DNA sequence: TAAATAGTTGAACAACTATTCAACTGTTTT
DNA sequence: AAAACAGTTGAATAGTTGTTCAACTATTTA
């Protein structure tokens, strides 16, 4: 950062620490993408959908029935999960069958669960 | 769930699957807490703060300076992180030094990073 | 004691988001 | 061909949330 204008309204107390942290700080864009990923996990409806799909492939109706929600709201959330490449789907007749696109997703899920369980 | 009223506006196609999933479905409250945890991770300011604190303990001014944001907004976010038991702090003189309350947090962080990096 | 500084806090505002509703597409059934 | 059903989509709405601003507390320094 070579900008002189700073929103930081204070005298820097530990310039050495700030510099050291800045040095080994991950890429800005990477942290942004990471936040975006967690944001998707940060909704109970989407968490429930992912949790359900980790057990078995399901169609929109099945998920709506399981979570006692409308097809529409489930479809909206599935679109978000699809855009984030967290779920994939196959169409068969009138139905669309959704499943997890990646096993790695559940590792993040499980790690989070461990922390919540304390 | 023993309620007959269902928001699910469709005939259930795979009652057997829905029942099976319902059976091995995690506790509702647990999934809610999990979503709340991920929600906290799902903001780039908070992610950056956690990432910084994983490198070194820092005071509010240091963080504000590092991220080029006001003390106020950092303090607000630190309050949220504190309430979620993700950070702890010690006061010394005029300053408040924040650090991660748990190493486990960074495991979730790293796992997410792996996924984002693809 | 007064000024300066680090940090906190509540209200206000703007931006975002999850659900609802209605209308729609596409497939299957009668 | 018409009805029924699974699913999608866009607009509207209500609720949430991150930052800003101003006022405040507490500690230190002059």
Account of the protein in words:
Two copies of one chain form a homodimer. Chain A is mainly alpha-helical. Chain A has one domain (13-117): Orthogonal Bundle (Arc Repressor Mutant, subunit A). In chain A, 59% of the residues lie in helices and 12% in strands. Chain A has six helices and three strands. Chain A has a three-stranded antiparallel β-sheet. In chain A, a hairpin with a 2-residue loop joins strand 2 (87-92) and strand 3 (95-100). The mean pLDDT of chain A is 92. At the A-B interface, helix 1, helix 2, helix 3, strand 1 and helix 4 of A face helix 1, helix 2, helix 3, strand 1 and helix 4 of B. The structure holds a DNA duplex (30 and 30 nucleotides).
Task: Supply database-style keywords.
homodimer; about 120 residues; mainly alpha; Arc Repressor Mutant, subunit A; three-stranded antiparallel sheet; about 60% helix; DNA-binding
Topology, element by element:
The structure is a homodimer of 118-residue chains.
Chain A: H1 15-23, H2 28-41, H3 44-55, E1 58-59, H4 60-67, H5 71-83, E2 87-92, E3 95-100, H6 104-117
Antiparallel strand pairs in A: 1-3, 2-3
Helix pairs in contact in A: 4-5
The structure holds a DNA duplex (30 and 30 nucleotides).
């Amino acid at each position: 950062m070579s900008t002189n204008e700073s929103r930081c309204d204070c005298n820097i107390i530990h310039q050495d620490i700030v510099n050291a942290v800045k040095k080994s700080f991950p890429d800005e864009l990477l942290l942004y993408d990471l936040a975006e990923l967690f944001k998707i996990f940060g909704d109970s409806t989407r968490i429930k959908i992912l949790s359900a799909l980790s057990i078995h492939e399901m169609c929109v109706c099945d998920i709506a029935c399981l979570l006692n929600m409308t097809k529409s709201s489930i479809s909206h959330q599935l679109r978000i999960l699809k855009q984030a490449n967290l779920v994939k789907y196959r169409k068969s007749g009138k139905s669309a069958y959704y499943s997890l696109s990646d096993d790695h997703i559940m590792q993040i899920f499980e790690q989070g669960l461990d922390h919540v369980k304390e």
